[in-house]
Amino acid sequence: MRFLFINGVNLNMTGQREKGVYGERTLDEINAQISRLLSGHDCEFYQSNVEGEICSRLHAAGSEGFDGVILNAGAYTHYSYAIRDAIAAIATPVVEVHMSNVHAREPFRRESVISPVCRGVVAGFGMASYVLAAQSFIISQS
Ligand code: DQA
Predict the structure, then answer these.
(1) CA gap 47, 5 in Å, rounded
(2) Which end of the chain is more exposed for a tag (fewer CB within 10 A), N or C?
(3) What confidence category does residue 21 fall into, taking pLDDT thresholds of 50, 70 and 90?
(4) 36 C-beta neighbours (distance < 10 Å), count
(5) How far is the CA of 40 from the centre of ligand 1 (A)?
(6) Is 112 in the pocket of ligand 1 (CB under 6 A)?
C-alpha cells in the first residue's frame, strides 16, 4: 500500500525538544524505523511548520493515489480549522496520530478540531502510533 506521513509544526524538533515526552530519536530516525517496520509498503514523508503548506500537501495528496495519509499535525491539531477543511476536501482517508497520550496532558490537548474529519485517531504510543495508523489501513484492506 502507499502511505503519506505528514508531520506538522515542531515535529522537526523531535529528539531535541521535551525528550521525556517525545523521546530521543530524531524525526529522520523515526521515519527510517517506520519504513523498516512497514517494509513492502511505499512510505513517503513530509514535514512542515507552516499551516498553509500542510494544507497544500493534503490537497495534492488527494490526487496522488495514496491509500492513506497519516497525519501528526502537532499543535495545529487543537485549533487549525484550515487543516480540518483541507482533510475534508480530499477523498483520501486521513488518520490522526500523536506520539504522546494527549488525553493525559494539558486540557487544551484533549480537544482536536481535526478528529471529526479523520478516519480514526491513534495516540500515546510514540513512534508506534504512526505504524499502528498505517496498519489500520493494511488490516481493513485484507
Ligand atoms: C503531538 C501532541 C500535540 O499536542 C503537540 O502540540 C505536538 C505533538 C504528539 O505527537 O503527541 O506537537 O501531536
Answers:
(1) 8
(2) C
(3) very high
(4) 10
(5) 28
(6) no
Decide if 98 is catalytic: yes
At residue 78, the pLDDT reads: 98
Label residue 29 by pLDDT band (50, 70, 90).
very high
What is the rounded average pLDDT of the residues 109-123?
98
Tell me how far the alpha carbon of residue 28 lies from the centroid of ligand 1, in angstroms.
17
Residue 112: the pLDDT is 98
Percent of the chain with pLDDT over 70: 100
C-alpha distances (whole Å) from 39 to each of 1, 6, 32, 131, 133 are: 10, 18, 10, 11, 15
Catalytic residue among 46, 59, 76, 98: 98
